[in-house]
Amino acid sequence: MNTRQLAKVAKRIGFWALIALIMVYAVFPFYYAVVTSLKPSSDLFRVELWPSSWNLDNYAHIFSQTSFLRAIFNSIVVAFSVVFIALLFGLTASYALGRVRFRGRSTVLLVILGVSMFPQVAVLSGLFEVIRSLNLYNNPAGLILSYTIFTLPFTVWVLTTFMKQLPMELEEAAIMDGATPWVTLTKVFLPLMWPAMATTGLLAFIAAWNEFLFALTFTLTDAQRTVPVAIALLSGGSAYELPWGPIMAASVVVTVPLVVLVIIFQRRIVSGLTAGAVKG
Amino acid sequence: MSTSIKHNDAPLEARSIITKPRRGTKVRRQRVKAAWLFLAPMLVALTLVAGWPLVRTFFLSFTDASLSDLGAANLIGFENYLIYEDGRWYGVLADPIWWRSVWNTVYFSVVSVSLEVIFGVIVALILNAEFKGRVIVRAAVLIPWAIPTIVSAQMWAWMLNDQFGIINHLLMNVGIIDNPIAWTASATYSMWAVIMVDVWKTIPFVALLVLAALQMLPKDCYEAAEVDGIHPLRVFFKVTLPLITPALMVAVIFRLLDALRVFDVIYVLTSNSTSTMSMSVYARQQLVEFQDVGYGSAASTLLFLIIALATIAYLYLGRKQIQLGGD
């Protein structure tokens, strides 16, 4: 083997080593959480990469708590409602912004872009007031309402870029046949928009599922909390004895659906993220 | 619209030619009306959750409102921001903890976004190469992005635990450190712990944006460079980097805006400790924990202004790279 071939082999080894490093870096924290969650509490404080003994006590523990089950239920309700509202409002708005030329269009786009850059804290006190005056404080409905601030601009933005790419002819034919804009949208465009809607819906779902600041501020009792808050407050008790086993079990429970979604829909997620950003 | 044509005088063919645009305008008008109707739900929702609350936050920052009784607020001018009383300055702008949180936020943003861009580009370059199992690696890289921030903060808090954490364990076994480090509690290391978690979580985002840009690059100039025997590093800096700069700019602004409003990671990892407190944590602490809505709103308003200024400056500087909405 001459030096040239040697260099080539070294390069390949280096390349695969780098890939292995990236894989470990990306996956290890999650893997370690799974390992920790499976350990019996007596083994919890022994550091090991593979549990020497394991059981499902931590999972049994969190699932026996009604507050955690409530939190999962709340998170599911909130996330699905947010996705539904964002897609419904986003679809109509994106038709207007993507297919119709009218005065004020670019202003509306600018406003949407501006809102998507809002720091959530900047509206915290004002939004608190709105939610309280609508009687939605400590109510998941208040979260559904407030989450539109970050899901809606994003959904509109991405759906508009998709909507623009649809061929002109489709719409012209519909107009020729005397279809109203509503019919054009629901009968002609909607069937074509499903892939884009799946993508944005997925991203909105993840954003709503993960949100923390509003959920922490606008809810008060265990029964109304969402999962991220429930997990964060599991540790709230005392600074010295955190229930790490149950925390990790709860973390795994809320993360597994997301990881599965990501692995199944990775292509869609990538296209949604890049459509939202590159074209923005 | 200006289509006041007298039909009776016009000959038959001419009339049909003239009426055609008229029909067009009617359709057009109907479409514009429909457009606004279609926009209405979104505009109403955004006004309710963004526009109006923002205005109220501005307003509340000039009052002495408290969380328990928002209605009973008196206008007090700029007192929440800055006031000179009995030989001392008071208000957010005179609070050293506020300035500490501004510094923390800026430091956190600059360091973590820089690291994310560097590592994100490296990961993207690797994912751009053709190799077996690329799809699996890409899915694995996406995992940190999908994990809720709270959960990743908890996972890392456990790994960084001073007595039982695996990171101290590994570092001590390898011999890099002699005594366990209190990552999340010590003033020196807690900021790095926060940055570590944030970088871990957001590399995928940057990597995917850069990857999308890389995949749109023309293949031929790379072939030409290879034929000419130019060193890959040189090709990267002379060809690739300039071509992906627009995508990088977008990634940087998205990340920077996100980093400037950071809350979750810091709140969970280090709670309200001043050595890592960000502007968002500061504002929320005043608002919710100290119930001082007026003061907290003043901090929120300042945060909003800082982010708005940063955005405008960035857009102004990178005007050419970012286009609004396409056509």
TrEMBL record, chain A:
An annotated GO cellular component: plasma membrane
Cellular location(s): Cell membrane
CDD domains: TM_PBP2
Protein topology in the membrane: Multi-pass membrane protein
Keywords: Cell membrane, Membrane, Transmembrane, Transmembrane helix, Transport
Domain named ABC transmembrane type-1: residues: 72-265
Chief subcellular location: membrane
Key word Membrane present: yes
Pfam families cross-referenced by the UniProt entry: BPD_transp_1
PROSITE patterns associated with the record: ABC_TM1 (PS50928)
Residues spanning the membrane: 12-34, 71-96, 108-128, 140-159, 188-209, 244-265
SUPFAM superfamilies reported for this sequence: MetI-like
GO biological process terms on file: transmembrane transport
Protein family per UniProt: Belongs to the binding-protein-dependent transport system permease family. MalFG subfamily.
PANTHER family, per the entry: INNER MEMBRANE ABC TRANSPORTER PERMEASE PROTEIN YCJP, MALTOSE TRANSPORT SYSTEM PERMEASE-RELATED
Protein name: Carbohydrate ABC transporter permease
UniProtKB/TrEMBL annotation, chain B:
Pfam families recorded: BPD_transp_1 (PF00528)
Alphabetized UniProt keyword annotations: Cell membrane, Membrane, Transmembrane, Transmembrane helix, Transport
Domain ABC transmembrane type-1: 102-314
One GO-annotated biological process of the protein: transmembrane transport
GO CC list: plasma membrane
Superkingdom field: Bacteria
PROSITE patterns in alphabetical order: ABC_TM1
Record InterPro entries: MetI-like (IPR000515), MetI-like_sf (IPR035906)
Membrane-spanning intervals of the chain: 34-55, 106-127, 139-159, 189-214, 235-257, 295-317
Membrane topology, as annotated: Multi-pass membrane protein
Localization annotation: Cell membrane
Family from the record: Belongs to the binding-protein-dependent transport system permease family.
Name of the protein described by the UniProt record: ABC transporter permease
Organism: Vreelandella nigrificans
Phylogenetic classification of the source organism: Bacteria, Pseudomonadati, Pseudomonadota, Gammaproteobacteria, Oceanospirillales
